[in-house]
Amino acid sequence: MTRAGLILALYGSLALIAILVSAARGDVDIYRIEGVSTPLFMALSPLIGVALGLTVVFMSRLAVHRFDWARRLHNDFRQILGKLSYKEILVLAVASSVGEELLFRGALQPIIGVWAQAIVFALLHIGPGLRFLPWTASALVLGLVFGFIFQLTGDLGGPMVAHFAINYMNLHFIARFELPEPGGPSRAAAKV
Questions:
Q1: pLDDT of residue 183
Q2: Nearest to 15, CA basis, from 100, 89, 94
Q3: Cα radius of gyration (the chain)
Q4: Contact 116, 61 (CB under 8 A)
Q5: Dist. CA 161–CA 8, nearest whole Å
Q6: Would you list the domain boundaries of the chain?
Q7: Total Cβ atoms within 10 A of residue 2
Q8: For the segment 116-154, what is each residue's pLDDT rounded down to a tens digit?
Q9: Count of helix runs (H) and strand runs (E) in the chain
Q10: Which of 149, 164, 166, 184 has the fewest CB atoms within 10 Å, counting from its CB?
Q11: H helical segments located in 67-124
Q12: Are strands 189-190 and 177-178 parallel, antiparallel or unpaired?
C-alpha cells in the first residue's frame, strides 16, 4: 500500500469511528449542531477558518525564524516525514482535517465537552521526545480554538478549513525548506 493509501486508511478510520459514535448517540448530522447552525454561520464559518489558518501559518513561520526550538522542531519533522510529494501533502492535509475534525469536534465534543476533546486531541499529537512538546501544546490550543469555533458557529466548516490550511501550508514549508541548525542564520534555504 502506498503512503497516500495508508494516510487515507488511517484518517478514514477516524471518520468512520466519528460517524459510529455520532450514530450511537442518535445524532444524524455530525457536521452541524442543531439549533446553533444557521445559514449566516455556515457562510461565516469557513471565512473564520481561513483567517485562523493563515494566522497560525504566519505565526509558525515567524517562530522558525526567531526561535531555536521551532527550527529544531521543523528539522525534526523533516526527518520523520521524509520526502513528501505534492499529492501526499494534499492527501494528508485533506484526510487529517476531515477525519480529525469529524472525530474530535463533531463526535466527541458533544459528549465530553470542548476542554476534554482538546486534551485528547493534544495527547494524540505527542511526538517522540520532549522536543515535540511545543507541537503538543499547540495542538491543545488549536483543539480548544477549533472547538469554540464549532460551538459558536454550529458547523465544522471553520475548523476543517483552518485545520486544512495549517497542515497543507506547513507541510509544504517543512517538505520544501531545510532550515539552518539553531544558532545559525535564520533564513530558510530552499532544498534543491
A1: 63
A2: 100
A3: 17
A4: no
A5: 18
A6: 3-190
A7: 10
A8: 999 999 999 998 989 999 999 999 999 999 999 999 999
A9: 7, 2
A10: 184
A11: 68-81, 86-100, 109-123
A12: antiparallel
